[in-house]
Amino acid sequence: MKTKTKKTLKWIGIVLGSLILIVVSLGIYVYSLIPKYKGECPPLQTFLFTKPKTNLLMEGKYIYKPATELAAMIRNHEATSYDIVKEFIANIKNNNYKYNAIVWLRENEALEEAIKADEAVARGDSLPILHGVPVTVKEMFWVKGLTNNLNAKMMGGFIAPEDGALVKQLKKSGAIILGTSNVPFMLGDFQTYGEIYPTCNNPYDTTKTPGGSSGGSAAALAAGFTPLELGSDLGGSISVPSAFCGVYGLKTTFGTLNMTQGTGPDTITKYSRFAMGVPGPMARTAEDIELMWLALRETPIDQRFQQETKWQQSSDKELNQYRIGWTDDWQSAKVGNDVKEKLHLIITLLNEQGTYTEKNVPELNTDMQKSFFKSYALMFAENQPWIMRKLISMDFSKFDDGSTDMTAFYDAMNNPGEENWKQWQQENAVLIEAWEKYFKKFNFVICPVTYGAAFNKCKLGTPIETTEGKIAYSFYSIPYSIVFAATGHPAVTIPVGFNKEGLPIGVQIVGSYYSEPELLHFTKLVEKLLLKFQKANNILK
User: How far apart are CA 127 and CA 81, in angstroms?
Assistant: First the structure.
């Protein structure tokens, strides 16, 4: 071999070796930045995900009753918490395998707590508002002794050392925690699937998604596994699953409920930025939403990110005393015929009751989308080195199918400094003020949540088939579901009916900051005009 060739090969070897060393070192560095949890995920409760050889006996007396009714029955000695909890557990063990909605069940603990609840009733103790009522909780919230891994193997070894703040408050309010519900990998999709738990199915059609990230929450309610569910929302995570599964969901005013203490397995990362993320109740009736919200609003605050809220009493208005704005096509945020039809139905029903309605919304949808993407990036980029920000951007690009302008996300990820965060706060404050001004003219605004009904489970980014043609994956759920997350306004998703395929259709009612008491009062009035919760045909077969 010629000397020149030997030198060339030598230098090629040096370069390749150096590149390999750099790549390995980079990999080790990146790995060192990711929070670690000792051990692996405990073995799953396989009985939850396999068809039982023999179904447990159950009468079905309680599983579709509202939580308000169950609470009254327990309080009035018409039923025991033990019998109610036992029936819900039987329903879960008999039927969860169809939907994979519940991922951990506290059977023994829940029954023991129910016995204690019944003893308190027998003694004549003063009873809290959720006394003896079964509840399930989204897997992201700490429930002492249960795995909290966000459906990600790298988080699988984390066991909640105590109840999170909201779970503590639910227990203080008398609730019996049945278990936790399914979530997508790292809470990052409008479907519910991941690395640990089986994929969650929509009870109205198991080929469809229940939505995400509170998909297991909504599916559990629709399947009769719980009367109440604690969900969370950062960009449609309550509103989308509620719409897809025909249930009610309240995205609370930003900062009014403690979202930071006892949520998620990452106890290592320290952060100072927090926006958009809120917890909220989900249920099958508006009255149940109110019941659970009344319990949750007493949760002690995280003083780093919250201030005490002084809630106003709701009014005693009737529907003919409200002024309602609405929209079905909002700038670039278009929707399908199914949603338009049901939204127009609500407006027609309100008009018949004497409600003043007007197709009128501020032209802010595009600006609100930009605000969401910028805030999302600035939160997750805080204190992250360049390489991690690039990896986060690469992962986020799975949603970037060209249907929505996500430039604000990438720009903020490249410029995550404190000045940019302060600039976002100022820009978002302008949007909030514009809406607060709007809500002085209109009590609430009614608008879509998604383009249409629940879609077929598919790979993230796959175009969605509709009767109007293919719709881009991100466009199907993002344009309406994220915008009020950006500004932090409260919104109730309500089920309006079903499309021709028998799938639920939902829309949202949005109010001013801290308007929950009046928003829930209005929602209860609207509920009277609509069909009550309808079980899916395949439920309990």
Answer: 13
From the list 173, 217, 237, 239, the catalytic residue is 237
User: Distance between CA atoms of 535 and 533, rounded to whole angstroms?
Assistant: 7
- CB 83, CB 62: distance < 8 Å: yes
How many Cα atoms are found within 13 Å in the side-chain-facing hemisphere of 358? 11
pLDDT for residue 40: 81
CA distance 106 to 160: 14
At how many degrees (to 10) do helices 81-99 and 67-75 cross? Answer: 150
Facing residues of 180 across strands?
Answer: 104, 137
Rounded to whole angstroms, the Cα distance separating 502 from 498 reads 5
- The one catalytic residue among 86, 98, 138, 208: 138
Assess whether 237 carries a catalytic annotation. Answer: yes
Strands of 323-326's sheet, edge to edge?
Answer: 102-105, 176-181, 134-138, 228-233, 278-283, 248-251, 491-498, 504-510, 444-448, 323-326, 356-359
Ordered structural domains, the chain, with CATH: 68-371+398-527 (3.90.1300.10)
Integer-rounded Cα radius of gyration of the chain: 24
Per mean pLDDT, which range of 20-29, 324-333, 436-445 is the poorest? 20-29
Cα-Cα-Cα-Cα dihedral of 474, 476, 478, 479, to 10°?
120
For residue 15, what are the contacts with CB-CB under 8 A and spacing of at least 6? none
Round to whole Å and give the CA distance between 143 and 194. 20
**Is 213 assigned a catalytic role?**
yes
Give the pLDDT band (50/70/90) at residue 461: very high
CA distance 306 to 165: 13
**pLDDT score recorded for residue 26:** 42
H helices then E strands: how many in the chain? 16, 13
* Average pLDDT of the segment spanning 238-256: 98
What is the rounded distance in angstroms from the CA atom of residue 180 to the CA atom of residue 195? 17
Are 365 and 331 a contacting pair, CB within 8 Å? yes
Distances (CA, A) of 462 to 156, 191, 210, 451, 459: 28, 12, 16, 15, 6
- Choosing from 213, 474, 477, 515, which is the catalytic residue? 213
Distance separating alpha carbons of residues 281 and 36, to the nearest angstrom: 31
Average pLDDT (280-307) is 97
